[in-house]
Amino acid sequence: LTTVEQFLVAEILVFLVHQDFGRNVYTIKEVVSEIRDKETRRRLAVLPYELHFKQPFPEYVKLVTEFSKKTGDYPSLSATDLQVLALTYQLEAETVGVAHLKTEPEKKVQLSSTIRHPEAPVNIAGFHLPSKSQRLEADACVSTSASRPRAAEDSPEFGAFLYWRNPLPSIEEDLQELLKAHTVSLSPEVPATLPPGMDQESAGEEGSDGDSDDGEGWITPDNIKRIQQGMGHCDAPANVQVGCVTTDFAMQNVLLQLGLHVLATNGMLIQQARSYILRCHGCFKTTSDMTRVFCPHCGNKTLKKVAVSLGADGTLHMHFSRNPKVLNTRGLRYSLPTPQGGKHASNPHLSEDQHFPQQRLSRKARQKTNVFDPDYIAGVSPFAENDIYSRAAHLQIRDAALGAGRRRMNPNAATKKFVKKR
């Protein structure tokens, strides 16, 4: 069990179950505000220790946000997740420092294609697999034979086997030797020479008694931690100053890429997380650029995130989900709306090179107030230029300096729908 020496940042409420993870448990108020059930709120009110609340600095939130965009986990993270990551980074920087932390993520998955698999068989009984040089020589022989006069076909040698190759080496003998070398006996071995007064039956009984040992080799609750550490599934170091407890795979990936410590709900230290790529379910092409929205091969918006792992020989293994809801059919039942025209059209984003209107203000709204006008009054002038009739004014499009784009002063306010009467 890992014990955090200084600070433990909790993304989930594991501190309600385990109290021996860390000396100081930190979290943000948004995590506690997500609690809805009464039972958990009651347990939170009677914690046997003090729960510290701390908000991360904006510069750390920005740093973690940019780093998550590079790893490709930004679409899977919420605002609360980013603040928890930033708080972990901030406590690590204040306690240990940032010299050991990374600024760029590691590229664990690199897609590469080869002409032939490195484990492709060379000699197969009954098949002839010529090399590239042999194929070139054969093509040259065929071209020279085609250029010969047609009278050669009438020769008595026509139809004979003119090309000869050496027979392939037989692999049956090698297989027999391998089988003999790795022969496994299913019956217990009995020594050839038995002590005097001991027959085969007594030897067999003694062997059966030896099999019924005291349970050595079994996995029990007492030794499961040691066996997992020996297999490399988890680790429990002693000197962990700052750690984060989370079950979100996206958060675990970002923390591990940054070089921070990640703890599981059982208190063990996580050493590796999942890696993802984008796979197009239309043309089945893959890309490791997690920032893409459209497929770089077919151009459709059909990219889905798939977990991958690298084999021992460098091959890429993709792990698909059996959940049919992964490929959501939302928006595919009905036809697309009719494309709109004009300066302020709102059309769905369907392609990567699609052009969108600039959403600029009207000419009257861009005019500045003339302070040299005789009718101008300092302060609040009743004669100030104010555009309230144009299409841009109805859509509440602001200046670029104030933030361009459509917005409502009150997002909860109901909008009026103008329906043309017939």
TrEMBL record:
GO terms for cellular component: nucleus; preribosome, small subunit precursor. Residues 188-220, 334-365 are annotated as: Disordered. The keyword Ribonucleoprotein does not apply. Residues 270-342 form the Nin one binding (NOB1) Zn-ribbon-like domain. It holds the Pfam family PIN_6. Transmembrane segments: none annotated. Its main location: nucleus. Residues 157-222 form the Putative WW-binding domain. Keywords: Hydrolase, Metal-binding, Nuclease, Nucleus, Phosphoprotein, Zinc, Zinc-finger. GO terms for molecular function: hydrolase activity; RNA endonuclease activity; zinc ion binding. Zn(2+) binds at C280, C283, C295, C298. Residues 202-216 have a biased composition (Acidic residues). Residues 19-91 form the Ribonuclease PIN domain. It is found in: Nucleus. InterPro entries: NOB1 (IPR039907), Nob1_euk (IPR017117), NOB1_Zf-like_sf (IPR036283), NOB1_Zn-bd (IPR014881), Ribonuclease_PIN (IPR033411), WRNPLPNID (IPR033461). Coiled coil: none annotated. May play a role in mRNA degradation. Endonuclease required for processing of 20S pre-rRNA precursor and biogenesis of 40S ribosomal subunits. Belongs to the NOB1 family. This is RNA-binding protein NOB1. The lineage of its organism: Eukaryota, Metazoa, Chordata, Craniata, Vertebrata.
